[in-house]
Amino acid sequence: MSLKEELPDYSPETLVTPLLERLSTYLSSADIDKIREAFYFAYEAHTGQMRSSGEPYITHPVAVTEICAQWKLDPNALMAALLHDVIEDQDVSKSEISERFNPDVADLVDGLTKLERIKFASKAEQQAESFRKMLLATAKDVRVILVKLADRLHNMRTLGGVEPSKGRRVSNETLEIYAPIANRLGLNALVREFEDLAFEAYYPHRSRVLKKALASAQGNSRNLFHKITENIQAALPAYGIEGTLSSREKTLYSIHKKMKEQHKSFSEVLDIYGFRIIVNTLTECYIVLGILHQLYRPVPGKFKDYIALPKVNGYQSLHTTLVGPYGTPIEFQIRTTHMDHIAEEGVASHWIYKSEDMSLSDLQKQTHRWLQSLLDIQSQTGDSSEFLDNVKVDLFPDAVYVLTPKGKIISLPRGATPVDFAYSIHTKIGTHAVSARINGEPAPLKTTLVSGDTVEIITSEQAKPDLSWLNFARTGKARSEIRHYLKTINLNDSIKFGEKLLRQALQDLNIPMPEREDELWAKIAKESGAQTIDEILIDIGLGRRLAAVVARRFLINSPMIATSAMDIDEISAAHASQILIQGNEGQSVTLSSCCSPIPGDSLIALVRPGFGMVVHTDDCPIALAQRKKEPERWISVGWDKEYNKHLSTRLTLTIENVKGMIGRIAAQIAGADANIVQLNMPNELSEIATLHLTVQVEDRKHLASVIRAIRLLPQVRKIVRVKG
Questions:
Q1: Quick one: 45 and 64 in the same domain?
Q2: Which of 77, 136, 412, 720 has a CA that sits 20 to 30 A from residue 613's CA?
């Protein structure tokens, strides 16, 4: 055989003919002509470009289009698959594609194009921004992500041609992002292939060892499979049921994941085998379940009804694990033909089976709601990395199903809390949530929900999200809404506090606060390098600019003010008056946790650029030590007449540890109209114990009454307010 005959044939007709033959099974001749034109356009654009494997690059878009053809995507999506790299790699413009083909194809290709030519601070930022661009395009048209998943699948199938380090990076990205997206869209067959290909590339040795062990286990289980198959095939007709029985096994990746999560060896992972039974009607699913439970003993806690409660991606099936012959646990899945189509192809089944007039409206609505949630997250998120993090959180593999008080079922990710539940109902409910009732019992917002819980959210108009919520919020919607609120409210607080500081500094100079329309503002903003008035006020509020310096600029820039005001050299002396705080200014004013100042305490404050003022009591040991190091950063602070009446401070009690002592102390504190926020007794077994309390009081006078009430108990030997 000659060398010429041995080389693969990459001529245009050889590449395109098999593809067009496959497409002709469901597309018209006119559509085939359009796709042929797109192929030749891509062929010409990629001429001379090679893949890492040494093949002409055009083989990649053809392979991607063949995968899309398996899902029977429409002509525009198929043309986009052929052209998906021409903008990115070959400098073809979006407008050129729009004119040559149509705007729909151009939009799809643009949604699939990475942001390569824009400069980013890092490769990670570029990838995150490209991913955000693709997902937002997906939110408008799900075909974008279907073509992208086909693109990623072919890249995973051909990883052998790339460097191992790049192969591991691509595999990790596939497991972290693309497999979860495929799962979220219900493409289970694709998920399995993604996971096994990524596992093989990332852990080649582990993959080979597991594959060998699984092959050995298969040989040992032939009798088991044969016996189960015989029993079921005999039992179903006896009840008048026609069903298709097929055996299956867990994927290598799922076995590896279970071994890792549960710290088990391969021999300890018993449920690696399973059967799937496909029947004609929903009622037959439950009849088959009963038949199986008569044949074999069910494993307690291993039954899941995804028909009554479908997964968020539309998946429906009955799952049960039974103790089969020889004591081996076997998982069974029972579903209808319709459910099986959805389970394997998910949202792509809309195109594959549309000729069967299947009603997929619920699945399409669920997919649309998830895609719409991406736009909601985007609207609250400015940073692309943060957006990607929130989307990853939302790509949950499992779900819990909880109920509203009116019985509506809400699907949430595993590990979700009442905060996630509240935001899933309405943003306003999440924003004003204070606590929850779970199954009628009071519960904190960080409680982990389980399927079947009935959840009621308690709200208050005065309540607002707390930064700590991000530690236990699980959904992308909740996390993005919390972050958005905190950013917005902190900026507003900083503007108000910055304005207050500047007004006070100007008063010290006998200068009135200029109106926002005053041209002085524009001049001072320009000199300061600021874009807006609010930017100056935010910087003052956060301690990035000193109010006295900005006030001085007003004095210098206005001759009329300067002549009527005191001498500029007297400014420092004039700026000695106290800054008054209320204790609820948000990010601009932080009450230090080391001494927990309350109204009535004498105060000092440290100005930290970017953090605003950190307020201490003037006798706090930590503050006094820091003040010696940076005396120029400390300013005089006092309490405003209107102050926050719900501040906390800490007490340490030395007590006789008798029965019921904590209850007596709590009763005395409640009788003094105060609230215990936190309680800790580390040496609870000692006769003399130390009790640490955090109590919420109105002011120093109220604290004194609380201490007097506690001292009435003879078993209390000592009370100390903690500072430092």
A1: yes
A2: 720
Please answer whether residues 607 and 613 qualify as being in contact, where contact means their C-beta atoms are separated by less than 8 angstroms.
yes
Packing angle between helix 188-202 and helix 252-262, nearest 10 degrees?
A: 70
The answer to the question of residue 556 being in a domain is: yes
Give yes or no for a contact between 695 and 651, defined as CB atoms under 8 angstroms apart: yes
At 697, which CATH number? 3.30.70.260
* Residues of the chain where predicted confidence (pLDDT) is lower than 70: 1-7, 89, 114-140, 218-221, 267, 270-272, 312-313, 347-399, 490, 527-528, 543, 549, 556-577, 585-588, 609-612, 683-685
CATH number at residue 424: 3.10.20.30
Total number of domains constituting the chain: 5
As a whole number of angstroms, the distance between CA 223 and CA 673 comes to 74
Task: Quickly tell me which residue has 């060892």 as its tokens.
Answer: 209
Neighbouring CB atoms inside 10 A of 659's CB total 7
Three-class secondary structure of residue 400 per DSSP: strand
Residue where one domain finishes, among candidates 483, 517, 533: 483
**Position 129, amino acid:** E
Give the pLDDT confidence score for residue 350 in this predicted structure.
57
d(CA 149, CA 385): 21
How many of the other CB atoms lie within 10 Å of CB of 549? Answer: 13
CB contact at 8 A, 51 and 157:
no
Neighbour-count burial for 58-89, b at 16+ CB within 10 Å, e otherwise:
bbbbbbbbbbbbebbbbbbbbbbbbbbbbbbe
Task: Establish if 460 belongs to a structural domain.
Answer: yes
Residue 129 lies in a domain: yes
pLDDT tens per residue across span 67-113:
999 888 889 999 999 998 888 767 788 889 999 999 999 988 888 77
Asked if 678 and 652 count as a contact pair (C-beta separation under 8 A), the reply is no
Cα separation, 272 vs 391, in Å, equals: 31
Q: How far apart are CA 514 and CA 504, in angstroms?
A: 13
Residue 88 shares a structural domain with residue 192: yes
CA distance 249 to 221: 11
Of residues 654, 683, 679, the one with CA closest to residue 666: 679
d(CA 692, CA 671) in angstroms, rounded, equals 19
Tell me which amino acid residue 294 is: Q
Q: How crowded is residue 431: how many other Cβ atoms within 10 Å of its Cβ?
A: 18
User: Please, what's the b/e burial string for 200-214 (b: 16 or more CB within 10 A of its CB; e: otherwise)?
Assistant: bbbbeeebeebeebb
The predicted pLDDT at position 118 comes to 42
Q: Which residues of 144-156 are buried (b: 16+ CB within 10 A; e: fewer)?
A: bbbbbbbbbbbbb
Q: Which residues, including other chains, have CB under 8 Å from residue 28's CB and lie 6 or more apart?
A: none
What residues make up the domain containing 374?
365-483
- Contact indicator for 532, 525 with CB cutoff of 8 Å: yes
Q: Using alpha carbons, list the distances in angstroms from residue 678 to 187, 434, 602.
A: 48, 17, 25
Q: Are 633 and 607 in contact (CB under 8 A)?
A: yes
Q: What pLDDT is attached to residue 389?
A: 60
Non-local CB neighbours of 639 within 8 Å, separated by 6+ positions? 580, 581, 582, 583, 599, 600, 601, 603
Residue 575 has a pLDDT of 43
For 57-77, what is the HEC assignment? Answer: CCHHHHHHHHHHHHCCCCHHH
On whether the pTM is more than 0.85, the answer is: no
Q: What is the DSSP letter of 135?
A: H
* CB 214 within 8 Å of CB 249: yes
If asked whether residues 504 and 591 sit together in one domain, one would say yes
Q: Hey, what amino acid is at 443?
A: A
Confidence (pLDDT) at 115: 46
Question: What is the spatial distance between Cα 136 and Cα 381, in angstroms, rounded to a whole number?
Answer: 13
Measured CA distances, 683 to 162, 261, 507, 688, 716 (Å): 61, 36, 54, 8, 15
> Do 441 and 539 have their domain in common?
no
At 144 the three-state DSSP class reads helix
* Residue reference for tokens 């069974």: 332
My answer on whether 307 and 243 are in the same domain is yes
